[in-house]
Amino acid sequence: MTSIWAGLWGLLAGSALLLGAALGYWARLPQRLIAAVMAFGSGTLISALSFELMNEAYKRGGFDSTSIGFLAGAAAYTAANFLLARHGAKHRKRSGQQQLSESDDPGSGMAIAVGALLDGIPESVVIGTTMLAGGAVSWVAVVAIFLSNLPEGLSSSVGMKKAGRSAAYIFGVWTAIAVISGIAAWAGYAIFGHFSADIIAATTAVAAGAILSMLADTMIPEAFETAHDFAGLVTVIGFLVAFVLSKLGG
Question: 70-100 burial string, b = 16+ CB within 10 Å, else e?
Answer without folding.
Answer: bebbbebbbeebeebbebbbbbbbbbbeebb
